[in-house]
User: Fold these one by one.
Assistant:
Number 1:
Amino acid sequence: MYIPILTLLPLLAAANPMLIVAISEVPSNAAPGVTADPSSFCPTGTWYQAKEDKCPSGFIGCVNFARYSSVCAGSKRFYNDCSGEQGLGNFYNCANGFIGCTTRTNVCDLKGLGGAEALPVQIPIVAEGVGENAGWKCPPDTTYFGAGVCATGYLGCLGNKNDVRCSGKVEPGVCPIGTGIYNVCGNGFKGCSTNVNMC
């Protein structure tokens, strides 16, 4: 059984003013807390689980409806990352408003919430050894490595340039284990950091 979205829209808008429904119908058996992605940030066939909806597992981001119950249920195993279960992609914190797991590697380049253009993000140009810029700061004992510093294309905070993450192979937008989450912040920071207050 399906309930037309026009019937539910006033109730959904009252419960969550940021919700912009991108589909015409919602299954009547839809799991609570799963919302249509606000601005098509999620890949086709997935839904957006918002932080405010509080999955017991701590999951935030895009998930296939069939996997929602297994991803959201259980004890806390997601800590602003996607390591609690395979196949959920990487964790992003974007200037356009998207926060969470997705397999969409260009999520930070998409239009922002409500269809607004994504904020222009300027990669900070900092010399090796400089750990802060425009109000953000790398964690203690780390340095920001900007565009062109690492042969791998790695962007973010690291202990030193000889780190394998700077000299090995790194996929764009992916944070190797131990380097935190990938951020694209309105304050200009772009890259991996363990500093949860980077943006």
Number 2:
Amino acid sequence: MAALRAIRGMVNGAVSELSGGGASREQAAAVTRDYLSQPRLTYKTVSGVNGPLVILDQVKFPRYAEIVHLTLPDGTKRSGQVLEVSGSKAVVQVFEGTSGIDAKRTSCEFTGDILRTPVSEDMLGQPINPQCRIYPEEMIQTGISAIDGMNSIARGQKIPIFSAAGLPHNEIAAQICRQAGLVKKSKDVMDYSEDNFAIVFAAMGVNMETARFFKSDFEENGSMDNVCLFLNLANDPTIERIITPRLALTTAEFLAYQCEKHVLVILTDMSSYAEALREVSAAREEVPGRRGFPGYMYTDLATIYERAGRVEGRNGSITQIPILTMPNDDITHPIPDLTGYITEGQIYVDRQLHNRQIYPPINVLPSLSRLMKSAIGEGMTRKDHAEVSNQLYACYAIGKDVQAMKAVVGEEALTSDDLLYLEFLQKFERNFIAQGRYTIHQCCVTVSSPLRSMFQSLLRGQLDFPCAISGGEKERKNLRGFQSRKPQSLGATCWFSGILIKLFERRTLSPFSLPLILQSELFI
């Protein structure tokens, strides 16, 4: 009876305040109605915000997995879901993030309903694409042969550069900014037009020397006119380091989707960003994950990397090249490990190549561009681009194996085939990978030299044929005449390496079929 009197008194008190205004009337109606039939209640009892979570007190009958609508002070609407219920306390995870939420002025409406989605048979064959993303195509040329030739970057792709302390990743980033340009579709020329290409460069946690290097390099080479520069120094507040890449990407989205430019975003150093994220997480007393990094670092990095791409109805694109330094050259560290899961490949900067004075020290074997196939080929770069890249990769991989074998058994124990591969490896690194800091390499020219030298060695008899040599004097003259011819396209280079691979795999191949191949379209 005492409980009934208390409830009756609360109802009477609420009804007596109806004349006090609209807010009192709504509160009285919320108290008197049945919660299960009309469950929508609005609260302004936010007691705290922790990462993506909002904590509310004094909530009447909160339900697990209930959908909550949040209204920010500026009128922005967001949605969330109840993750935990403890008495009158509810923990809500906000889908759109908690940025801008004011604990005192944010109102939360509990709908009493769970998450629902409309379904239909029309959904079959229609993948969900809420942002209307377009598959990345066409190529951005950097002028670095190891990237353009074997790890081509597509517009709208996100591909990181894995480096380490003491390696020239800053010089590579500056060179990409100087030389990057668009490749016109259906033409093998570069488009340096300032009207449709821009670069957004963001440096996080760099020292004064590095900041001065980037700024002076952009100014001296005239690329500052196309570059939007964001610099966060090592002595700046940690929270600025977390904001810097988001400011840069917001600027890139404006240039890409409003001004319809093709934007190249370079972020360095993402390791400094991850360490700043760990510092903020420790200050919040959150449960640490691997090596002290927060458990949500994968999600946080994805909010940065996934902003690259192309949007339907817009001509612009955002291509990301984040640069990170691997602690102790450890590629299994959480930062490169999680980055590799999110992005579409990686470009690996190798310390051994750097110690041998090869610049840029890019190791093409662990490097990968998963979207290269959509950026090259007929109508975009060259018809034989993929074949040449694959053959170069195969020859270089065999050369590295021979180099490792040489360190064990010595050069005297190597066969003539092994020596030829070893010679190719040296010429490939010296003529194809290596280039000057201010040199734009046309990879279709530099790639032909090492492969052609291998094939000339074959014709001079320095390589054993796997089949019996037989033929007339006419065929022998044709073979000797081949040595004076020069390749005019990558098709010839592709054919060189294809012949060599077949020979070294001991397949049956008649050398006197070469004159017929020389007259084919591949050599024209």
Number 3:
Amino acid sequence: VQWAEWGTGWTSAFVGARPVKAGYQMATCRRASEDELPEAPEGGRVIHVEYCMYCKFLPQYLKFRKAVADRFGERVLCFGNHEDTLQQLCRQPKARLGAFEVVDVKSNKVLYTKLGSGLHITERQEWMDQLFDEIDELCEKD
């Protein structure tokens, strides 16, 4: 693939390929707005998941995030590996090696950690249900 900048947009050497500059600009704008986590919805929570990319824990994170969305809808927001939150929680901007940790952002309470047990919460639905019950209790406190 050969890229050339002609006029206003970038172009691919492939015939009929779309210019990629518009997508590039949109990605940089989106990245700038993701610096801060949003506020929790009323009666809800923001959950942060630290997961190790080197250990290929992304599928477990996606499974967990989908389960949170299925159970809570928009009431509980789930984010993963947010640099500012990681810096605040574990004093480094990157996820720790082997980590899969679920934290309530408002209270900074660790709800689950793989570092201590060696087990993923996504391995059993009953473990996720227990965690979701705990998140439900946190939502009801407010």
